[in-house]
Structure to design on (104 residues):
């Protein structure tokens, strides 16, 4: 009985630990293809994405706005992705595709 309680407590603690939402890599530069998407307006649902990672950007209803190439660290990429998601009220997201590592 005590063993089961201990295991349950360990599971709660392990699953409850908050992960760092930004990458730890703030030194290596990468070239990224950055696409900006806008959430579609629907009658039943609000115009918003569920997560900053753009799970709905692959959805055919997401509206493509623009595309460009940027050179950023993974940490900066994560901050920009989080920033546009929050600032737009979850209505816009950046979707990044890593092209190549720049420099050493």
């Amino acid at each position: 009985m005590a063993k089961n309680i201990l295991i349950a407590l360990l599971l709660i603690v392990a699953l409850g630990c908050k992960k760092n939402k930004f990458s730890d890599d703030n030194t290596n530069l990468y070239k990224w293809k950055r696409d900006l998407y806008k959430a579609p307006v629907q009658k039943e649902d609000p115009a918003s994405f569920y997560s900053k990672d753009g799970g709905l950007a692959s959805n055919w209803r997401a509206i493509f706005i623009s595309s460009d190439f940027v050179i950023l660290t993974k940490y900066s990429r994560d901050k920009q992705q989080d920033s546009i998601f929050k600032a737009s009220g979850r209505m816009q997201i950046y979707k990044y595709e890593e092209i190549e590592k720049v420099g050493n």
